[in-house]
Each structure stands twice: as structure tokens, then as C-alpha cells.
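mind reviewing this stuff:

——
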Amino acid sequence: MKYQIISAAIAGLALTACGGSDTDTNPAEMDATEEVVVEEVEETETPAASATAELEADCLILASDPEAQENFVDMGTDTEGFCGCFVDVIDNSPEDERAQMLTTLAEVADGMQASGEGAEEVVGRMMSDAMLNMESEASQGTTAGIRMIGDVIDRIGNSMEEAGTCPAA
């Protein structure tokens, strides 16, 4: 569970990265003879691809935590290497576990963004709240999600430290 805090912090990043993008095209700079064609683009992204994009963004939010950055150094990787591996491991998890981890990561990321706190503080508060009402399905899901994410981070950290590779590879 050495890296459990990192996984919780990474979850929040995915939601931030899902925003739109600006374009640099200035209509005044277009040649008058050029014809501008605007086409409606249908969204072809599958639900799985969308969930992966959110996971990547959540990972980036968590990775911004200073404690996570210190752990990346110990692992011999950087934010990009960790998040790439993290996404691969979670995407290759059983569907029910993957769904719970995605939900928990989103909660942590949202909490980090809303409070400005690090992953450890947000996860600690989530666990305290869950322990107060362990009979509820939501509390059980939060506890299980945090535990699963911690296990994933531990596996990644151990694999990177020992073999220099992602366990999903």
C-alpha cells in the first residue's frame, strides 16, 4: 500500500483534461478565395474510450500531488510513465473492479480539485466518512475502490523499482 495515495491523487486529473480546446485559426487571415467548409463531426468515441480518457485525466490530477512526484522518483519513472502504466493496468482489470476504481478515482480527483488538498488528505477524509457508515453500499464501494487502487499502485511501484517495467506489459 506504499503507493496507495498516488493512485487516489491520479484519479482527479482525468476530469480536468476532458475540457475543450481552442483553435488558432483567425478568419481575418484567410484568403478571400478560400472556401471554408464547416462539417458537423459526429462523436465516435466509445464509452470505453471515454472512460480511458477520464482515467488518463484523473491520473494527471493525482500525479500533480508533490508526494506522488516523490514516489515517481523512487519508482524510476515520471508522470507520463506512471500514468501510462496506471491506465494500462486498470484497463486490463476485471470489469467490475475497473468500474469501482474509476468511480473512486473520480471522487478523489473531484475532492482534490474542490478542496485544493493533496490525495492523502482527500483519501483520508473519504475513508473516515466510509468508516462511519460501513453498512452503506457506497461506503463499501469507496473502501474497496481505495484498496484496489492502492494494490494497483503497489504493483506498479514494485515492478518499476525491481524490473523497470510496467506490470501490464
